[in-house]
Amino acid sequence: MLKLYYARPSAYARPVWLALLEKQLSFELIPVDLSGEQFEPEFLALNPFSHIPVLVDGDFRVIESLAILDYLEARYPERSLLPTDAIALAKVRMVQMVTLNELLPAVFQLLVHDEKSSEKSVFEYAQLRAINTLNYFEALLDNSPYFAGEQLTLAEIVAGTLVHRMPDLGIALTDYPKLNRWSDRLLARPTWQQIELSPEEWSSFKRRMRVIPKIWQRRRHQRINALSQQ
User: Fold this and answer.
1) Residue 26 and residue 72 share a domain
2) 99 and 187 in one domain?
3) What is the dihedral of CA 103, 150, 184, 90, to 10 degrees?
4) Which residues form the GST N-terminal domain (predicted)?
5) Could you list the residue range(s) of the whole structural domain that residue 66 is in?
6) Each residue of 162-204: pLDDT tens digit?
7) Engineering a disulfide at 126: which of 54, 109, 209, 227 sits with its beta carbon 3.0 to 4.6 angstroms away?
8) How many Å apart are CA 133 and CA 168, to the nearest integer?
9) Overall domain count for the chain
């Protein structure tokens, strides 16, 4: 059986979790406590870079969320999440990459900082970065139900769980009517409802995001020191 090492709030693990659900595959969820468990020897044996998610399929292990999604699509092609049309495929890949390279870094900064932050310029830049991404998605989506037209794809899988959280970060989706309808359509799906964070989980995640970077930095320094002594 497939095994997914994950954490419920993780923006990197949730798309893989969704893909497994959308493909209706059998899998086991193995939670990883990101307050330090990812630096333990047992997990580092799975991923020496201390990141989630990790997918284990028999004797084969895959790290990095985009690589895992591609692996699942190629290994288990039933209920495909990738279009074959060139333009539709390009749209899916653009949404995936823009989400990870532009929207996700902005979301992380918006979680850590706010308007009252001592680093207000960081907060303002993150807001502009997020708004620029949403404007791009609004235009790319046009009047289609999904980015690839009628087919739900990895574009939705990767972008969906981040976009609908924008109002919680001070950016209203009502300013993006097409994207707002798209997000509501996704949230109505049983798969999205299955992974949705409760208000308490979301609040706890936001609080932890202000603390975890310091923990990660300390543990990484320890890991670097350990590696340098080998």
Assistant:
1) yes
2) yes
3) 0
4) 1-80
5) 2-79+197-228
6) 999 999 999 999 999 999 999 999 999 999 999 998 888 877 8
7) 109
8) 16
9) 2
